[in-house]
């Protein structure tokens, strides 16, 4: 996978945090697949991986009818926030956290993609101020999400693809999620699709892959452990929503060969992915609305 750089400026008014899905079970079981549970340690030398085998069972629903979604099961990670756009500066504020991004004129190869890029970013909280400097500079800030344990997820667009950066407000550490999936040449994944924090803020689930592909991943921010959940390619993961118990989450997949959105449920307890069935346009939109938006 090639690395996807984080920030872009094309549509700085758009900040979308992924989150959606619904739940349903099925009776027909497919063969089990082995996947990796990888511990990630951020060091100067790069990402260190320790592999463990995990068994994932995938069930496929046989009923092709539109799936009925129970919205009462979902955790809604939407804190009230305020966004102010003034000239070449964007300010996002919620609770005691303020994020500021400044735009500047694009130069060189950047100018072929956009007139402006995100030059600098900073996050200020009661714990202090942190600067975020990304190279290459992103075109756009897509979304921000604050977890319950003082972590900020920052999603940005690049010339090709997107990046997700996790900022620990307590310790000051910054982690680029794209680097959890690396090519033989050392480059990270090209894009991060939908993402969402667990109810306790200890984990974040996301779609990760190169352009045209998307796999489910989960990162435990306390243990610094990354789990590549399944080798199944979901093409595009448009939303992810955790259940209130924090032990499972739903996600929505849209493939190239069909515009129909499909709902899946991943259970950490059962280590299984269940395909619940097709979603109506209305449910697809409602699930998307469970996530924060800039």
Automatic annotation (TrEMBL):
Entry-linked InterPro entries: 6-blade_b-propeller_TolB-like (IPR011042), WD40 (IPR011659)
Region forming the signal peptide: 1-26
Keywords of this entry: Signal
Keyword Signal: yes
PROSITE patterns associated with the record: PROKAR_LIPOPROTEIN
Pfam family, one: PD40
Name of the molecule in the record: Protein tolB
């Amino acid at each position: 996978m090639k690395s996807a750089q984080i920030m872009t400026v094309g549509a700085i008014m758009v900040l979308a945090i992924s989150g959606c899905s619904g739940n349903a079970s099925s009776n027909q079981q497919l063969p089990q697949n082995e996947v990796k549970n990888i511990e990630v340690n951020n060091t100067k030398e790069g990402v260190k991986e320790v592999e463990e085998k995990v068994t994932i069972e995938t069930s496929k629903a046989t009923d092709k009818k539109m799936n009925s979604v129970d919205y009462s099961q979902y955790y809604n990670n939407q804190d009230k926030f305020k966004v102010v756009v003034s000239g070449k500066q964007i300010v996002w504020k919620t609770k005691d956290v303020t994020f500021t991004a400044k735009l500047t004129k694009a130069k060189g190869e950047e100018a072929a993609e956009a007139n402006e890029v995100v030059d600098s970013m900073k996050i200020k909280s009661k714990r202090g101020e942190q600067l975020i400097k990304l190279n290459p500079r992103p075109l756009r800030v897509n979304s921000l999400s604050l977890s319950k344990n003082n972590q900020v997820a920052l999603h940005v667009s690049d010339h090709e693809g997107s990046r997700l950066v996790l900022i620990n407000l307590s310790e000051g550490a910054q982690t680029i999620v794209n680097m959890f999936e690396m090519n033989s040449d050392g480059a990270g994944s090209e894009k991060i699709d939908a993402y969402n924090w667990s109810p306790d803020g200890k984990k974040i689930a996301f779609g990760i892959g190169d352009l045209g592909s998307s796999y489910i991943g989960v990162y435990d921010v306390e243990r610094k452990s990354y789990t590549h959940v399944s080798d199944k390619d979901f093409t595009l993961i448009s939303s992810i929503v955790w259940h209130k118990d924090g032990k499972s989450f739903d996600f929505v997949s849209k493939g190239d060969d069909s515009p129909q959105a499909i709902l899946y449920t991943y259970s950490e307890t059962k280590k299984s992915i269940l395909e619940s069935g097709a979603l109506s346009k209305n449910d697809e939109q409602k699930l998307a609305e469970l996530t924060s938006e800039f």
